[in-house]
Design goal:
There is one protein chain. 6% of the residues lie in helices and 53% in strands. With 920 residues, it is mainly beta. Among the domains are: 96 residues; 216 residues, no CATH class; 173 residues, no CATH class. The strands form 6 sheets. It has a 31-stranded antiparallel β-sheet that branches. A 6-stranded antiparallel β-barrel has the order 6-7-12-13-11-10. It has a two-stranded antiparallel ribbon with strand order 8-9. A hairpin with a 2-residue loop joins strand 13 and strand 14. The chain starts with a strand and ends in a 5-residue tail after the last strand. Pfam families: LptD_2 (PF19838). This is LPS-assembly protein LptD.
């Protein structure tokens, strides 16, 4: 035997390997030619011919047990036992062979038996360091000692730890078969990545099929080294690789509710249909209270994703609950026996589809939230869904035709109010548009900077078919109607009412032409822009009015047939900008700039009330309205409530006034030390605007519209202030109704009266949170993105950002209206002009590195009560997590406490305790 230092001359190493190992190709730090099996020496007369022939035969000879190059290295030394054909590597030894990699403190290679052995080495404190780490393809093993046969690809690993999917397999001894299967004795399976895991499933026998599953014999759960009686006769744990998705059972959760009895909830099956689609099918069943069955429910959740193309999710849920009301005794008679009320059946559908933008292709998107009126109230655990009464849905396809100015879009829209049961559908709503065209280009003229080159024409075709289950009240300006009603009627949505629903449809087409006459500069500073527009509408029906003198009431019929109506409008606007600069030259503030943007516009719409295609004249003889006024002759609209209804206000000659203000401050920056950007702009007032209009065509009564004012700004980057208000210049009588008299005629110093106002203050107290929100700021979709599916898969497991130590958001809202009665009515107390005054607080506090507490509360000053209040916490326990939520009072009063494994593989390994509005 002899030893070779860690760094030896390459020639001596090759010579030693050739003499000692006879054909084994070993190289230090870089690969050498493939190894050749040992062969007997040949006898030949011609040495040159023999040497040449042998060289060719060696290169073409069949390979032995070593199939490819072995790369190896060691920090301390490498020792060769030539007689025993064993190589020893010491200190941080490493071997790479084919798809195998082995690192350890000590490695031995026995070429007679084709076995690699590796183990760690004790340091000065007696602790074992550099334990063997063995990689075979995608598999990794860490152990105390490894013995591996690189010919048969079988191995035996002592004190082994290997990762299988999201889990880890610990075993006293592991045997690896040639096909990759692993057999373990005295094994432990866990998702904790520590050497001494917090919990594990203990089994005497265990088998792992890499990338597929881990199965075991009888097992029991061990938590904190304390055995528990939790276990079963066998264990099955799917461990799909990152490139493979697996299907499997979803175990239900068990509990009890006061109204529906015991339950099994969220149990079912997950089906990995393909690499792009995953389907989750779950259900729930209730034992019921007394002799009544508690009902059942089902849910299908489909997630799909195609990289660089689209992604989305589809969810449909159905629930049947027992009827919780009992008919009164007086309704039960001998002639009509008691009938048990039917169990309410509810459903909900959610669909979200988001495409990836591709040039030249069509874009399809969907955002759908619709279902039964009472589904969220009866089934949802999400407070936000219960408190949200308005849902909207939209399915849209749009495309721009290549090499053409034409683009089109088709929408299917739906809106639903779960509080009132009103539902409106637009099936379909399409738009065909033509990009602006310049007439001089049609004539083949070259651009020369002439004024007519700014003339342009745009065209849009709109179509709509609306369906609503709400029939509006049949009343018209106080005119008595035959069959009229003062209240709207809601048609229940069912197959039996399809006829009434289709009768309530409204459809129409609209053509719009926008003609721009250019933009011109007057007196060097004024921007003048005239335009003309033309609109026409087409309908398949219209209204027909007939006054019946005998009953002194108006009859309204719907007449079917093709109908056409049109209108036109002209407008011109004049605007400019001017600035005021106030130099300060202070230590931090350099100057303040004030930007003023005044604008004046004029628009004219002719009086089309006398035209037969928009209105029908009706003469009312000796008929008065509810106020005792004679009706006389009236022009009644033919398309009242139809889509694209043309203006029915008669002639309009409007002068519109607008004044916008912005105030900015130029300050010196503290961060800049180079002098390249010594100043920055800080906004003091983002917007302060005033708008009003004056109708010259209206009679002397109320020509001046209300004056609207808006103000918004940000203070110190954290306080957002928004103010909206409306002022009236007219006086009011004792009944609080406006009269034709200006306020300055009564009091010279008073110009306008405050009608309505709204104030909103929002502040984020943590600057770090504000920066995070600015980075992650994205525009919201049509629906509320926080609602998602009606029943979340795991409603208690939200993402927790521990990088922010604390956050506090405060929001104050106040709304004022002077249109409420000034004097109290009979039997009523005085009404406050403030319709809404509320304060909302919310945020999170990072107690420790692993514990975070969140809170939401508020106070309604109008009703003098605390608003929705919730306190929740999250504790990270490495491989486990504890989350809880407490609602101290209110309709949804209760609490929830959950401790669960963080791994999605063991998502059913959890303990939940709750008292909610379902089982309180």
């Amino acid at each position: 035997m002899y030893s070779v230092p860690g760094k030896v001359p390459r020639l001596a190493l090759i010579l030693g390997l050739w003499l000692g190992l006879s054909g084994m190709a070993l190289a230090q730090q870089r690969p050498l030619p493939k190894a050749v099996p040992q062969a007997r020496p040949r006898l030949a007369v011609d040495t040159t011919r023999t040497r040449s022939a042998d060289s060719l035969r060696v290169a073409a000879a069949p390979q032995g047990d070593i199939k490819t190059t072995i790369r190896y290295s060691a920090t301390d030394s490498i020792r060769f036992d030539v007689a025993g054909r064993v190589a020893y590597l010491y200190d941080k030894a490493k071997i790479d062979y084919d798809d195998l990699s082995l690192k350890a403190a000590r490695i031995a290679i026995d070429y007679n038996k084709n076995i690699l052995t590796a183990e760690g080495a004790p340091d000065t404190t007696g602790r074992i360091r550099d334990k063997p780490v063995f990689r075979n393809g995608a598999e990794t093993y860490q152990s105390g000692r490894i013995a591996y046969n690189f010919k048969t690809r079988k191995g035996k690993i002592a004190e082994a730890v290997t990762q299988q999917g999201e889990g880890y397999v610990h075993a006293e001894t592991i045997k690896r078969q040639a096909n990759g299967d692993i057999y373990g004795r005295n094994g432990r399976y866990t998702t904790c990545n520590l050497e001494n895991p917090h919990f594990y499933i203990n089994a005497t026998k265990m088998k792992a099929v890499p990338g597929e599953q881990v199965v075991s014999g009888p097992f029991n759960m061990v938590i904190g080294d304390i055995p528990t009686p939790l276990g079963f006769l066998f264990g099955y744990f799917p461990t799909p690789s990152s490139k493979k998705r697996a299907s499997g059972l979803i175990f239900p959760s068990f509990g009890q509710t006061t109204d529906r009895g015991f339950f099994l909830r969220n149990g079912g099956y997950y089906w990995a249909a393909s690499e792009y689609v995953g389907v989750r099918l779950t259900g729930e069943i209730y034992s019921g209270a007394g002799n009544d069955f508690g009902g059942w429910g089902s849910q299908a959740d489909i997630q799909y994703r195609r990289r660089y193309r689209f992604n989305g999710s589809f969810n449909v849920a159905f629930s049947q609950r027992p009827a919780n009301q009992i008919l009164p005794e007086e309704d039960v008679t001998l002639d009509q026996p008691y009938q048990k009320p039917k169990s309410p059946r509810t459903f909900w559908v959610s669909w979200s589809h988001s495409p990836q933008t591709r040039p030249g292709g069509g874009q399809f998107s969907a955002s759908v939230n619709l279902g039964s009126q009472d589904y969220n109230r009866l089934n949802s655990f999400d407070t936000r869904r219960v408190l949200t009464s308005s849902f909207t849905s939209s399915i849209r396809y749009s495309k721009a035709i290549r090499n053409s100015p034409i683009n089109y879009a088709i929408n299917l829209d739906q809106s639903q109010n779960t509080g009132t049961g009103e539902m409106n559908l637009t099936l379909p709503n399409f738009t065909v548009g033509v990009a602006r065209q310049y007439p001089y280009e049609w004539l083949g003229l070259e651009p020369r900077g002439r004024f007519y080159e700014q003339f342009s024409i745009g065209y849009t075709l709109n179509g709509q078919n609306r369906l609503s289950n709400l029939q509006p009240a049949r009343q018209l300006d106080g005119i008595p109607l035959i069959g009229g009603t003062s209240e709207a009627r809601r048609i229940p949505i069912s197959f039996n009412n399809l006829g009434d629903l289709f009768k309530n449809t409204q459809s129409g087409l609209q053509n719009q032409f926008q003609i721009s006459l250019g933009s011109y500069t007057l007196l060097k500073h004024l921007n003048f822009s005239p335009s003309v527009s033309y609109s026409s509408s087409m309908y398949s029906k219209r209204l027909n009015y007939q006054y019946i003198q005998e009953v002194q009431a108006l009859r309204i019929d719907t007449v079917r047939g093709f109908n056409y109506a049109h209108t036109y409008q002209g407008s011109a606007s004049l605007s400019t900008n001017f600035y005021g600069l106030f130099s300060i030259k202070g230590k931090r503030v350099e100057a303040i700039r004030h930007k003023v943007s005044p604008s004046v516009s004029y628009s004219y719409t002719p009086d089309l009330r006398s035209s037969r295609w928009l209105y029908e004249p009706v003469r009312f003889e000796n008929l008065t309205n509810a106020n005792g006024e004679l009706l006389g002759n009236r022009y009644l609209p033919l398309y009242n409530g139809f889509p694209y209804e043309l203006s029915g206000s008669g002639q309009a000659s409007l002068i519109n006034f607008g004044l916008n203000n912005q105030v900015e401050m130029k300050v010196r920056t503290k961060e800049d030390t180079t002098g390249t950007t010594p100043f920055k702009k800080v906004s003091l007032i983002d917007n302060l605007s005033l708008n009003a209009s004056y109708n010259l065509a209206r009679e002397a009564k109320f020509r001046l519209s209300n004056i609207s004012a808006a103000f918004n700004t940000q203070v110190a980057g954290g306080l957002t202030v928004n103010v909206n208000s409306s002022f009236s210049a007219y006086q009011r009588d004792s009944a609080n109704r406006p009269i034709e008299a200006f306020l300055w005629e009564q009091k010279k110093w008073r110009i306008a009266r405050l009608e309505d106002a709204g104030l909103s203050l929002t502040y984020q107290f943590n600057k770090q949170q504000r920066k995070t929100n600015e980075v992650n700021k994205t525009p919201p979709p049509n629906n509320n993105p926080s609602l998602g599916a009606p029943t979340p898969v795991n409603p208690y497991e939200d993402y927790v950002d521990f990088s922010i130590p604390w956050s506090l958001n405060a929001s104050f809202t106040a709304n004022y209206s002077s249109r409420l009665p000034v004097l109290p009515r009979a039997g009523e107390s005085r009404t406050s002009p403030f319709t809404t005054v509320s304060l909302t607080l919310g945020g999170e506090i990072k107690i420790t590195e692993k514990l975070r507490v969140g809170y939401t509360t508020g106070y309604d000053f109008s009703h003098k009560e605390v608003t929705y209040t919730s306190l929740d916490f999250y504790r990270d326990l490495h491989c486990w997590a504890i989350s809880g939520n407490w609602i101290p009072f209110g309709q949804r009063q209760g609490y929830n406490f959950t401790i669960a494994a963080k791994s999605s593989l063991l998502q059913d390994l959890k303990l939940t305790r709750n008292r909610s509005f379902y089982n309180r």
